[in-house]
UniProtKB/TrEMBL annotation:
Residues 56-66 have a biased composition (Polar residues). InterPro entries: Epimerase_deHydtase, NAD(P)-bd_dom_sf. It comes from Tanacetum coccineum. Residues 56-84 are annotated as: Disordered. Pfam families: Epimerase. Gene3D superfamilies: NAD(P)-binding Rossmann-like Domain, UDP-galactose 4-epimerase, domain 1. This is UDP-sulfoquinovose synthase, chloroplastic. Residues 86-304 form the NAD-dependent epimerase/dehydratase domain. Belongs to the NAD(P)-dependent epimerase/dehydratase family.
Length: 444
């Protein structure tokens, strides 16, 4: 049975409108590493040097005679008598690929913008998706053959504004869904070059998207993926973006304090500030989705063919705790809980996740054990955590929460592909305190 991408808690959003921030206020992370030496990160930035223009490519599947274009379902598309056009930045990635297929199936005209650097990360770090994933070109061709729906493809870097400008003027998006960021906290903490790349890529890329909207698509709505990690772990409830405080007898509603826990999370804080500022200064319409971890592997669309499989990361750099636990259970390795396990994967503690995976393993006749390993992060081992999440519900969201059936599904995928597991990637490999200036080997 298909499982939609599901969050551990309902999404929390921070929309801004042409009138500035509304009452919906601002309110996402890791599997095997080898002993292969990692090259300096500048080798991954080749398409940002002087010859970068040759790496900017536009590709699309061929439109067949008589093929009917889909029709978007919203009122705006009907008024324009054409499908709503949605640009998915980072559409080759985990969230982006599933979103692109879902929107295309719904009848939207979809364009993917991606520099494919996420695949290069695997090559550089000696990692691989547990599930075999096809090339972006084969993915799009397969989708076309199954559905007769085209997805445009623009291969290039959003940090290259000339490329991004060409993509905007060519596709003319009505909305941009922005997933195009380096999304791993451990990756950003490997060494100086990864920390610098993360902040340059994320902050400058998002800033370019904002300028592209201002210059070429002023009515375009930006939907930007943020993270609950911006807020850290305060000892008070996390409000949805803003908090009303009284100080020295005066009261004001201010952005909720941010306590980011990595260079990655800090880049997301900068994004949020830039988005809020441009909403006020330029009247840009934006929704900043600060959400918890997204779980699951299969969607109704990705299950249609094995060339549409989504990626499944289980290593210590890109794999989520749930993915790592399910893979560990599948191969008979004890679940590796960091320290006391009192940290939260949003609304679930790590210990609770381990317990859920143990329960799911019992159903499959797998005996699952748990062991504590030193925590590579600098964080409180146990803490209070309560994030508010009412606004999207009020807007009609029907959240797909982490459930026993979803965990069963993820564990079954781990069992199905357990022969692809690289056991060298099981243990954590990146330390928050040992980060240095020199590029270094990430070893199991």
């Amino acid at each position: 049975m298909a499982h939609l991408l599901s969050a551990s808690c309902p999404l929390i959003i921070s929309p801004c409108s042409k009138n500035g921030p509304s009452s919906l206020k601002p309110s996402l992370a890791s599997l095997p590493t080898s002993r292969t030496s990692i090259q300096p990160f500048k080798s991954l930035s080749i398409n940002r040097k002087n010859g970068q223009r040759q790496f900017s490519v536009r590709a699309t599947t061929l439109q067949q005679p008589g093929t009917k274009a889909g029709s978007g379902s919203d009122e705006r598309s009907r008024q324009q008598s054409r499908p709503t056009r949605v640009m998915v930045v980072g559409g080759d990635g985990y969230c982006g690929w599933a979103t692109s297929l879902h929107l295309s199936k719904k009848g939207y005209d979809v364009a993917i913008v991606d520099n494919l650097v996420r695949r290069q990360f695997d090559d550089q770090l000696g990692l691989d998706s547990l599930t075999p994933i096809a090339s972006i070109h084969d993915r799009i061709r397969r989708w076309r053959s199954l559905t007769e729906k085209d997805i445009d493809l623009y291969i290039g870097d959003v940090c290259d504004f000339e490329f991004l400008s060409e993509a905007f003027t060519s596709f003319k998006p009505d909305a941009v869904v922005h997933f195009g960021e380096q999304r791993s906290a451990p990756f950003s903490m490997i060494d100086r070059s990864r920390a610098v790349f993360t902040q340059q890529n994320n902050v400058l890329g998002t800033l370019n998207v904002l300028f592209a909207i201002k210059e070429y698509a002023e009515d375009c709505h930006l939907v930007k993926l943020g993270t609950m990690g911006e807020y850290g772990t305060p000892n008070i409830d996390i409000e949805e973006g803003y908090i009303t405080i009284t100080h020295n007898g005066r009261t004001d509603t201010l952005p909720y304090p941010k306590q980011a826990g990595s260079f990655y999370h800090l880049s997301k804080v900068h994004d949020s500030n830039n988005i809020e500022f441009t909403c006020k200064a330029w009247g840009i319409r934006a929704t900043n989705l600060n959400q918890g971890v997204v779980y699951g592997v299969r969607t109704a669309e990705t299950e249609m063919h094995d060339e549409l499989y989504n990626r499944f990361d289980y290593d210590g750099v890109f794999g989520t705790a749930l993915n790592r636990f399910c893979v560990q259970a599948a191969i008979g390795h004890p679940l590796t809980v960091y320290g006391k396990g009192g940290q939260f994967e949003e609304q679930f503690s790590v210990n609770q996740l381990a317990s859920l995976v143990t329960k799911a393993g019992d159903k499959l006749g797998i005996q699952v054990q748990t062991k504590s390993v030193p925590n590579p992060r600098v964080e409180e081992e146990e803490h209070y955590y309560n994030a508010k999440h009412t606004k999207l519900i009020e807007l009609g969201l029907e959240p797909h929460l982490l459930s026993d059936s979803l965990i069963d599904s993820v564990l079954n995928v781990a069992v199905q592909f357990k022969d692809r597991v690289d056991t060298r990637q099981i243990m954590p490999s990146v330390s928050w305190t040992k980060i240095g200036a020199k590029p270094k080997t990430v070893s199991a």
